[in-house]
Amino acid sequence: MHVFLSNHREELITRCKTKVAQRPHRSATAHQLANGIPMFLEQLTRTLRVEEEGHRDEGARISGPAGGDATSLSQIGVSATAHGKQLMELGYSVDQVVHDYGDLCQAITDLAVERDAPFSPDEFRTLNRCLDNAIADAVTEFSLQREVELATRESVDANERIGALVHELRNLLQTVQMSFRALESGKVPVGGTTGGLLKRSLDSMASLLERAVAEVRVKAGVPARTEAMSLASLVADARDSVASDAAVRGCTLVVPVVDPLISVVGNRPLLVAALVNVLQNAFKFTRPQTSVTLRAGADGDRVKVDVEDHCGGLAPGLAETMFRPFTQGSADRSGLGLGLSIARRSVEADGGTLTVRDVPCSGCVMTIDLPRSTAPRRLPSKED
Question: pTM for this structure?
Answer without folding.
Answer: 0.47
